[in-house]
Amino acid sequence: MNILVTGCAGFIGSHLTEHLLRNGHTVIGIDNFDEFYGRKIKEENMDEARLSERFHFYESDIRDESALHKIFSGHIIDLAVHLAAKAGVRPSIEKPREYYDVNVMGTNVLLEAMRRFAVKKLLFASSSSVYGNNKKIPFSELDVVDFPISPYAATKKACELMCYAYHHLYDIDCYCFRFFTVYGPRQRPEMAISKFTKSILNGDTIELFAGGTSSRDYTYIDDIVNGILAGVEQVKGYQIINLGGASPINLLELVSLIEKISNKKAHYILSSKQGGDVDQTYADVEKARRLLNYRVTVSIEQGLTKYLHWVLKDLGRSN
Fold first, then answer.
1. Residue 125, CA distances (Å) to 56, 98, 179, 263, 273 in order
2. In this predicted model, what pLDDT tens digit does every residue of 74-116 receive, in sequence order?
3. Rounded to an integer, what distance in angstroms lies between the CA atom of residue 195 and that of residue 253?
4. Could you say which residues of the chain have pLDDT below 50?
5. Any idea which residues carry the catalytic annotation?
6. Nearest-CA neighbor of 180 among 251, 214, 230, 130?
7. Domain ranges of the chain
8. Nearest CA-CA partner of 125 in 151, 107, 111
9. What is the pLDDT of residues 147-175, one digit of tens each?
10. Which residues of 49-76 are buried (b: 16+ CB within 10 A; e: fewer)?
């Protein structure tokens, strides 16, 4: 199968690309090396993929209609996995127009290219942030998500709706995956687990917002990739599907676990809640189990152990 992956140099995109190549697929990858974090990190993320003759990489922006059409015309594409987006809740409050432009308009450009070139299958990366401060837990795909509390969350909800419109009008099969706080090797450097782990190892003080009481349903990268791979094989119709760890913990518990695994003492201060941050996330993954045979295979303790080993190995390489 020839699979287009937008955001292929990112955290999730690079892992997915490697698995697709190992499974015998051809990957047409797109990434614009957004300046949110360093280009060198993303270039290194693609080291393994670049070794394959079935990996075709294009440095391009998903908003560039002309460039996207050249890519579509140069390859027979069977399915698109759309991961490219401006990431992060807090930065979206500072740059809402940029987030709308990249996430919403960029998705529209991609959908229009799919329509024009008759590509009929799409997997879209949505986010648990669309649930806002949902009081009912765990979060179900049937819950009302009309109250996003950040521009980032609003863009993801808008894209889900746009994907449905193109499914309805042009028979594009689409699964919108709501990812729940993905972590693991190559995780974005500003994310909590990445920041906390490196700060604890270095003896630096970390800041825990919302008094350390906010909780997240952390999901190890392997489980997310397995869910996406199942979607590659089964996507049909239009579905919104949670992919999460189904076992949330709060920030204080997370720090305690990192202390235990690293055998290092954490130094932290407690701060007030940040604008745009939700109080908790918790995925109901029953629909994913039913449709995709999705299973959570990596517990938070196992995942943090794997991540710590990777961080130590990466630090060893850089020294």
1. 21, 18, 7, 35, 26
2. 999 999 999 999 998 999 999 999 999 999 999 999 999 999 9
3. 15
4. 318-319
5. 152
6. 130
7. 2-182+219-245+282-297
8. 107
9. 999 999 999 999 999 999 999 999 999 99
10. beeeeebbbbebbbbeeebbeebbeebe
Beta strands 215-216; 205-208: pairing state: unpaired
Q: Is the Cβ–Cβ distance between 299 and 224 less than 8 Å?
A: no
Beta strands in the chain (DSSP E): 2-6, 26-31, 55-59, 79-82, 121-127, 173-179, 182-183, 205-208, 215-216, 219-220, 238-243, 249-250, 267-270
Chain length of the chain: 319
In 3D space, the residue among 123, 126, 76 whose CA is nearest the CA of residue 230 turns out to be: 123
pTM of the model: 0.95
Amino acid at 124: F
Left if phi > 0, otherwise alpha if psi is -120 to 50, otherwise beta: which for 30? beta
Output the six-digit token pair for 206: 């970390």
Domain 2-182+219-245+282-297: CATH class, spelled out: alpha beta
